[in-house]
Amino acid sequence: MLALVTDSTACLSSELVAQNAIRLVRMHLLVDGESYVEGVDMDVTEVTNALREHKWVSTSKPSVGDFIDAYDDLARQGADHILSIHLSAEMSGTVGSAQLAAAEVDVPVEVVDSRSLGMGLGFAVLSAAEILASGGTVTAAAAGARRRADGSSTTFYVDTLDYLRRGGRIGRASAFVGSALAIKPLLVLQDGTVGPLEKVRTSGKALARLEELTVEQVENRGESPEGIDIAVQHLDAADRAEALCDRLIARLGASVDVHLVGLDAVVAAHVGPGTIGTVVSPRVRTLPPTIGATALDG
Question: Are strands 276-282 and 228-234 parallel, antiparallel or unpaired?
Answer without folding.
Answer: antiparallel
